[in-house]
Amino acid sequence: MARSPFVSIIIPHYRGREILHRCLQALAQDEYQPREIILVDNASTDGSVDAGVEAFSGVKVIRSRRNLGFAAGCNLGMRFANGEYFVLLNDDAVVTPGWLAAMVDYMQKHEDVAAVQPKIKSLDEPDRFDYAGAAGGMIDMWGFPFARGRIFTTLERDEGQYDDHGEIFWASGTCTLLRRSAVEKVGDLDPRFFAHMEEIDLNWRFHLAGYRVVYLPDAVVFHNAGTTLAQQAPQKVFLNHRNNLLMLLKNYSGITLLWLFPVRLLFEWAAMGFALLQRDGRQALAIAKALGALPAYWSHIRRERARVKRLRKISDAAIRRKMYRQSIVLQYYLLKRKTYRELPIATDNT
After folding, report:
1. DSSP 3-state of 108
2. 205 and 311 in contact (C-beta within 8 Å)?
3. What beta strand segments (E) does 270-346 contain?
4. Which pTM value belongs to this model?
């Protein structure tokens, strides 16, 4: 019988003794071997890392003197990892038996797949999908992400409606299995993102390089969404908007950006206006700050665009066929289509 490939499970951690213990306990109950668990300590001060290592033997700890964020924390873990595959796993995620074996088996049989995402369900409401990834990440052509089973703040109940294996646009950083060789080819997570959108940016590069990204419902993981930052916390709003715009500027061609980016900026102004109508000045200010931050990243954007140009095997037209080619914002807020199954069919992945 062939030996299973070595897998490195990478967990960036900032603080939270209880959530880390729960995560490590679930991993200890899984039987997949060979593997290593790499805990990246993002300068935690609550003793949670030491408590976790004491309770669960064999955990490898990499300590940072400052909080690197999710993106750079994962990169640090991957730098010291020995696996043929990487798992990026949130510290507030809880795996279930057989989750890893199912994903590795799929990867082994499909060499053109760079990333696999399991079904991600809510830890608080186990019959519902989780906010961060649900049944596979999608994105519209204007750059707004959503997921099968979760559009904006609407979470569907899991009734088996998304139990099909299928291609998706992005695999959630909550839990994703990555092919090491694919990461080495396209580059790791963008550390300037700090947190939020970094996995979508990485998956976009996978697509550009000719890889596929897949959702696998046979593997199930539970997640406590929003443990680190509340959904509408100003810092999270800032990071989501800034990083999303950076992602578009990095990965779309210049020709596409000429017509697409001005329209996207109108969405940003509309979001600020909506926040003000809701008397949420802090959210409006966070979006304005995100827009104002973009010029400082111009040199970085130019370098990243050069890398994307070297990677690119498919056109923007082909990329958009992997996206939702209508506006998810208009579908959700104006037409009141709250679930993935209600959306008009506007993708063509054939």
Report:
1. helix
2. yes
3. none
4. 0.95
How many CB atoms sit inside 10 A of residue 293's CB? Answer: 15
Do 109 and 242 reside in the same domain of the chain?
no
pLDDT (tens digit, 9 = 90+) per residue, 8-63?
999 999 999 999 999 999 999 999 999 999 999 999 999 999 999 999 989 999 99
> What separation in angstroms does the CA of 329 have from each of 34, 92, 98, 276, 336?
44, 29, 36, 18, 10
Query: Pick from 84, 5, 8, 6: which is nearest to 40 by CA?
Result: 8
Alpha-carbon distance values, 328 to 11, 150, 171, 334, 342 (Å): 31, 12, 18, 10, 11
* Domain enclosing residue 257, as ranges: 234-314
Beginning with the edge strand found earlier in the chain, give each strand of the sheet holding 145-147 in spatial order: 137-139, 145-147, 150-151, 154-155
Asked if residue 135 and residue 265 are part of one domain, the reply reads no
Domain total for the chain?
2
Asked whether residue 132 is domain-assigned, the answer is yes
Crossing angle of helices 234-251/281-293, nearest 10°? 30
List, for residues 61-110, the tens digit of each pLDDT value: 999 999 999 999 999 999 999 999 999 999 999 999 999 999 999 999 99
Q: Is the distance from CB of 88 to CB of 13 less than 8 angstroms?
A: no
Amino acid found at 42: N
Find out whether 71 and 105 touch, Cβ atoms under 8 Å.
no
How much is the mean pLDDT over the chain? 95
- Residue 274 tokens, joined: 């909506």
- Structure token digits, residue 50: 């030491």
CB 116 within 8 A of CB 216: yes
Torsion angle defined by CA atoms of residues 269, 272, 276 and 279, in that order, rounded to the nearest 10 degrees? 170
Residues with Cβ within 8 Å of 297's Cβ and at least 6 positions away in sequence, in order, are 192, 246
CA 255 vs CA 15, 28, 258, 301: distances in Å: 44, 50, 5, 16
Tallying the residues shown for the chain, one arrives at: 350
pLDDT value of position 1: 56
The percent of the chain in helix, strand and coil, each rounded to the nearest 5, is 45, 20, 35
